[in-house]
Design brief:
single chain, about 150 residues, mainly alpha, about 80% helix, globular, CRISPR type III-B/RAMP module-associated protein Cmr5, antiviral defense
Length: about 150
């Protein structure tokens, strides 16, 4: 009898643990990591591998650019470099789209907007939040780019 009770309790315990694991909300870091991993994998599998290598290099330099010039200036520069015909343009376009999509999501800083349009239409508090969020996002992008995109560093 006591063995049956223990077995039932053990099964209930397993059920409770597994349902808790699936019901647990993701942390912000997990959401950033999952989003960045998916986006970097897209770039790593791009048919133009020169563009992928450039994406990796630009992902490394973008946080410093944001720190020195601000988010708006950096993204305006990135957008000016977007050109789907050249590897450099493809890489900048993917990086710009990645940041814009992150900020444009439902819980992002500029919901439903292009990131540059959001920067121009929002207040300074939201801008600072977006800049900090971009820096946190780029930590994941840089790490995944180093791991997934082979070639020059």
């Amino acid at each position: 009898m006591s063995l049956e009770v223990k077995a039932v309790n053990h099964r209930r315990s397993d059920k409770t643990q597994s349902s808790n694991m699936t019901d647990t909300p993701q942390t912000m870091q997990q959401k950033r990591a999952a989003f960045c991993y998916r986006k970097v994998k897209e770039m790593a599998g791009h048919k133009n591998q020169d563009a992928a290598k450039r994406f990796k290099a630009y992902a490394n330099s973008l946080p410093a650019m944001v720190q020195m010039n601000g988010l708006g200036q950096t993204l305006a520069f990135a957008k000016s470099k977007c050109d789907s015909g050249k590897p450099e343009g493809i890489a900048w376009q993917h990086l710009y789209d990645l940041i814009s999509e992150w900020h444009g999501r439902e819980e992002g800083c500029y919901t439903g907007q292009d990131v540059l349009e959001g920067i121009m239409s929002s207040d300074m508090h939201v801008y600072r939040q977006a800049q900090a969020e971009t820096q946190a996002l780029m930590v994941w992008v840089k790490q995944f780019a180093r791991a997934e995109i082979k070639g020059s560093d």
